[in-house]
Amino acid sequence: MHNFGDFLTILLHVDRYLVPLIQQYGALTYLFMFLLIFAETGLVVTPFLPGDSVIFALGALASVGRLDIAALAAVLMSAAVVGNMVNYAIGARLGPAVFSSERSRFFRRDYLDRTHEFYERYGAVTVIVARFMPIIRTFVPFVAGIGRMGFLRFFVYNVIGSVSWVALFLAAGYFFGGLPFVRDHFSVVALGIIAISLLPPAVTAFRAYRRSRTTKTPVS
């Protein structure tokens, strides 16, 4: 893969690339998928990796016997949970060091305190809901770590969100991925999955924009 076009091609035709991967590497495919999902959610620098569409495609392949659905569920759920925990740990480690100065313009201590208060109040919903939002789900555990959200609290809601996310897309692929339309138009379905996944943050951003417009004091 030499450019973004190649990456987009793989993303939109992920089912075509997974089949040769399974044929060539067999059981090692589970390891590759673990690393993919782990990196997508566990490393702040890789939020662009495909998650939803890949899990859907894996579910579809499991429905025709190419992969074991139970093994997939265990591997992908573990990758999502562990990835979030690593991301949280990185944030928790960097937070105190980065926000230690009271004079810093961008990394002030009171910003850290506000983030901590936010995650103590809304952290549960944020961690669970963000799991279904591409890109955003990569940064939420990192910020939760920076904001010093309680470890046990984060872990519980991380498990709930990760298990729900994998179960939903894996089941959708397993039960609907074999339908003729889905099989023959997977690129369209992949785009639809991406669009639906991006809808919540888009709606939130639009509402925030509308609020800022309505509350803005007109210049006389």
Note down, in words, how this protein is organized.
The protein is mainly alpha-helical. The chain has one domain. The chain is 78% helix and 0% strand. It is built from ten helices and no strands. Helix 2 packs across helix 4 (52-63), helix 5 (69-98) runs antiparallel to helix 8 and helix 6 packs across helix 7 (136-146). The longest helix is centred in the middle third of the chain and has 30 residues, at 69-98. It is globular, with a radius of gyration of 20 Å. The relative contact order is 0.14.
In short:
The chain is mainly α and 220 residues long. It has 10 helices and no strands.
How are the SSEs ordered, and which strands pair?
Elements: H1 4-12, H2 14-25, H3 28-42, H4 52-63, H5 69-98, H6 109-130, H7 136-146, H8 151-176, H9 180-184, H10 186-215
Shape: globular
Number of domains: 1
Total strand segments: 0
Major sheet = none
The oligomeric state is single chain
Run of helices and strands: HHHHHHHHHH
Model regions low in confidence, pLDDT < 50 over at least 5 residues: none
Rounded to the nearest angstrom, the distance between the terminal CA atoms is 55 Å
Average pLDDT for all residues: 78
Overall helicity = over 70%
Radius of gyration over C-alpha positions, nearest whole angstrom: 20 Å
How many distinct helices? 10
Helix/sheet category: mainly alpha
Strand content: under 5%
Annotation keywords:
220 residues; 78% helix; mainly alpha
